[in-house]
Amino acid sequence: MLALERRNRILEELQIKRQVVVSDLARSFKVSEETIRRDLDRLDKEGLAKKSYGGAVIIEDSAIDLPFNIRKKRNIPGKQKIAELISGLIEDGDHITLDPSTTSVFIAKALKEKRRLTVITNSLEVMIELSDVESWNVICSGGTMKEGYLALTGPRAIEGIGAFNADKAIMSCKGFDMVKGITDGNELFCEAKRAMLDNSREHILAVDHSKFDTIAFSKICDMERADIIVTDEKPDEKWLDLFMRSGIRCIYPEDGI
Amino acid sequence: MLALERRNRILEELQIKRQVVVSDLARSFKVSEETIRRDLDRLDKEGLAKKSYGGAVIIEDSAIDLPFNIRKKRNIPGKQKIAELISGLIEDGDHITLDPSTTSVFIAKALKEKRRLTVITNSLEVMIELSDVESWNVICSGGTMKEGYLALTGPRAIEGIGAFNADKAIMSCKGFDMVKGITDGNELFCEAKRAMLDNSREHILAVDHSKFDTIAFSKICDMERADIIVTDEKPDEKWLDLFMRSGIRCIYPEDGI
DNA sequence: ATTATATGCTTGCTCTTGAGCGGCGAAACA
DNA sequence: TGTTTCGCCGCTCAAGAGCAAGCATATAAT
């Protein structure tokens, strides 16, 4: 196995388990512990992991605006679970919106089994993912490319989203806090997300467990605007309480849906 | 086996195995390890693989999947020549339109050395190619995804294109005939192309030599709407005559531009 | 015919790896 | 809290694999 591939796999393992142990990695990759230590050193220097005594832990930094391709690699299993759950909420023929996020790409992939969907999006990645579906209606908002992201923003994006009325808005975010509500890293993205909410009947929030109790830079909307929250792990009681009180339906894998 | 073919096969192998080893490839293609290393170098530079000590690893998060990357590489020489010639016609700060076509992707690549360009396009491929430029203004028309193409069409695309006034429209086509004018395969695409022409001061037609004297299904416009024609080989005298009579400037490589 | 490109070979040089060793950190126990 | 003990760490070294660069040759494009 190549060194780079080994490091990639260590990263994947980190994503899943949130921490790795030097001795385990050495055994499973059949290399010396010293080599693993050097790998972790490197990942540490690259800012992808944090070394600690005996191993390394994942770096969590939801408030920082990471480049898309790095953010994308995080918590893949969780995002896949969420995508499957959301797929269960969508019916053939639905009109939905998808925002620019890694989760949305997974959702788009999961939705491909559906028929005759109409999708409105400002995400280039979602459009590309959906470029091969048949008899769907994939609509692009238009707008200005946000530098470094595969996403469209600005007045024309808002206008383009507002031109349609969807059944369901599917949305992700960076921060999810009881007081500060639903937040994201960038004002322009928030505007577009709000436009999606404003023009949809039902609001589905896709948010993995790591986002709970975190706050990002810019506010999208209050918690109460969400109708359904889909996540990858059962939230704390305090959250379930809040959802109940606010009349928000919360869906997570153990539900057995 | 041609070098290009070998590199494509290396890419295919990468898709399957996630990683390739220099020594194995050298043995299976019966070339020296240096040659393989040079191949991997190139794939690395093109962003299709990541070199590692002893081999290379796949880059998974490239937004466009392999089929598009491979398709894009057919008939490189002509398209690249055209792209370079067109690059010579564009100045820093220009506002241009780019239509959905392979040639446009090459043009976009060639234009990356320019500064502060504003690009209006309905091509997803062009947008992705330009997703990493700095201080440009990349604007997407919006519209409906045309099934099987990475292009946006329909009334919203037309409207989105019409919302801006460009300096130069850069356009390609499928057919180019003295009587039938400039034609393309699809009515929807033609509409969008016409919108680009209608909203630009100068019309640059990028058309490789194989398109001369061919007719495609749907008419974009008359020959006379073109201001500059850029092609990859010196056209016949009869064409040069026509261009002269119509006041169309024709640019081809031997020009020494 | 001439230029450009691709390939193979050789020669140092670099990178990765595993082993050994002294030192430090962490947890258990007094 | 202080001490002990064990395991982990970082450093260094040497071996070996892999690499870049330059050059000569072969092949393709013009």
List descriptors.
2 domains, 7-stranded parallel beta sheet, Arc Repressor Mutant, subunit A, 3-stranded antiparallel beta sheet, DNA-binding, globular, alpha/beta, homodimer, 38% helix, 257 residues, Rossmann fold
Overview of the molecule:
Two copies of one chain form a homodimer. By secondary structure, chain A is α/β, with parallel strands linked by helices. The first copy, chain A, has two domains: 3-58, Winged helix-like DNA-binding domain superfamily/Winged helix DNA-binding domain (Arc Repressor Mutant, subunit A, Orthogonal Bundle); 68-255, 3-Layer(aba) Sandwich (Rossmann fold). Chain A contains ten helices and 15 strands. Chain A has helices at 3-17, 22-29, 33-45, 68-71, 76-87, 102-111, 124-129, 155-162, 187-198, 237-246, and strands at 19-21, 49-52, 55-58, 95-98, 118-121, 137-140, 143-145, 152-153, 166-172, 175-177, 181-184, 200-206, 218-221, 228-230, 249-251. Chain A has a seven-stranded parallel sheet, with helices on both faces. In chain A, helix 5 (76-87) packs across helix 6. The interface between A and B is large, with 35 and 38 residues. Chain A binds a DNA duplex (30 and 30 nucleotides) through helix 3.
